[in-house]
Predict the 3D structure of the following.
Amino acid sequence: MNWFAHYFPNVVTMKADFVTATGETLYMVAITAIVAGVIGMAMGITLVVTAPGGILANRLVYNLLDKLVNLFRSIPFVILLAVIAPVTRLIVGTAIGTTAAIVPLIVGAAPFYARQVQNALVEVDRGIIEAAQAVGSGPVALVFRVYLRESCSELIRVSVVTLISIIDLTAMAGAVGGGGLGNLAIIIGYDRFETDVTVMALIIILALVFLVQMIGDWLARRTNHA
Amino acid sequence: MKLDAMIKLQHVDVTFNQQHRTVKAVRDVSLTVNRGDIYGIVGYSGAGKSTLVRVINRLQEPTAGQVEVNGQNMLALTNKQLRHARTKIGMIFQHFNLMNQRTIADNVAYPLKGSGLDKAAREAKVAHLLELVGLADQAQGYPAQLSGGQKQRVAIARALANDPEVLISDEATSALDPKTTGAILALLKELNEQLGVTIVLITHEMDAVKEICNKVAVMEDGQIIERGSLLQIFSQPKQPLTKDFINTSTQVNQAIEKISQQALTLSDTQRLIHLEYVGTAADAPLITELYKRYGVVSNILYGNVEILQGTPLGNLIVVMTGDQANLDDALNYCQQQQIHVSPVKLKQEVAQ
């Protein structure tokens, strides 16, 4: 371990901090993924079924949701963090800390995921939907037994993209007081000129990203029979 | 005795409102399909065939008109009733529309959920259906592993899952090669005979109609321009479009084109004639009679006999040689024998 102490002098003394920070990052990613996943999935499905020519076409709902997603996708995340601080305070009680960071993370990630889900679902051939309608399937069956089932592999793929994007966002949230590896990299590593801390935080984040990508790709391949 | 009319469309209109114009895809179409019919609807793409048949199971809502299937007013149904009614109207498509992520067996089982059958009964039914279409050994495979013809067989099994009374075939053979087309048509015919399922078959190929249909309607520009029994339509087509479809199918069109290319020159004592005959007229030794009675020599350039629903239908293109009076007498004689006579116009003449 000599070379490690040589190249990472500050990291060696901060083992506990790294464990905590990694835990915080995983916590933020997990909660955000679950909540934004559910919200984004619901929004994505709604976009597809209410779109013109969709199985429950509804111009008003579609346009409203479409504009809303566009709006939130346009706000840079750093600014979003600041802008929704009052809302965060209202929900969590504070605008600072790991749990508080989850609110803007969800608001940032859900519309992104919604668009990804929408793109995955519209890939399902219109003819397949028609064939299911022809045998008597209603909207619920069409969503759960056709749309989601047929695009399963594609959904896994876009979920991976979203998950990686959430990991990216947590690092940014960390920089403004959210804790986690981003916090460690900027507040300790960058501000105190302890570059080895920044590099170590980066290595852990990259490892997380690669792991997610690998597992995701494998699952997507396995579930695709087309 | 059950109701004879299985499908009854009355004065159906379908109008699409596009941004700058309205398109009348179906215009005032009335059509009755009887129980057990294999009813062919022929027309070029864009004629409104697909839109029309989608009105039957309300995949397409009609703008106006009445739709009855098996005595049930389809337009009066609630959403739930409509979904149930649709289980009794099977449908197959040009591009098969199978679910790629489900196994063959799962595709066929798809319509059975909610049918009240338990798991074992569903599995038995799927096995039986796959047996029926000749794909029992492929049950656990995925659609991507099948050929076009096999995919269409799976689609047929799926369409039959809920024992429908009607099967709608929307260009189901148009993406298949001729041999596979023949096999799929034979399967449809078999299902019609064995299960008594009424079939509506849309196509742009008269050959498919000729193969299995007992009745035909010809569509153009959103309207049915001609309809009747298969034999009627083939032996006495009235509309130019119908004639065109039939002459393409019997290859008379192609024959005339070839004859035209050979720069055939006819003298005053020769005439190029197209003879069409149906049923018993086909049995008489016509060519010999013409020579014996009038001294007219007939040189056959093209001949074709189709057997439609057990009745022969013949087409001959001949050059008749003889003097003018005899030729006229010979043609009169043909007409007396219930043979349809028409002079053939070569393509160059048409062009001039």
Observations:
- Chain A has a mean pLDDT of 92.
- Residues 15-223 of chain A form a domain with the MetI-like fold fold (CATH 1.10.3720.10).
- The radius of gyration of chain A is 21 Å.
